[in-house]
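Hello Y.,

Per our agreement to keep a running log of every chain we model this quarter, I'm adding this entry. I've kept the format consistent with earlier entries: sequence first, then predicted structure.
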Amino acid sequence: MSSERPTWAPRLPRREIARLYETDARGIVNEDLVNEVGYGLFARCRSVLAVEEAYGERKVQCPSCRAQIRSDPRKDKIISCTACDWSLPWTEFRRTTRRKCLDIGGTPELSQTFKQWQANLKRSQGL
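Predicted structure for the entry above:
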């Protein structure tokens, strides 16, 4: 039985975002920086949405096999994946999200916009 803890994308350093805007303002396209900031923001948004789903919709993605798990977010409960035998107490899951600024911040519109954008991206890539 695995008890691997979920990991979350880190916050993007403000200096990287500022650098992107500054180079763009000078008419310079730094593709490496565009990719770094773009993928960083994409990963961070996915982490925020995953945490929102865990707490709001009671769905957790298994960090081992990526299966969706229905869960009960009470302190005494265990999150268990029947697909791969992964499990973790809810209290431990909550610890992985603490002090990481992973809440949606009262803007559900942002969540819906990102989910729609992600769905459109998958469709355009044939996924």
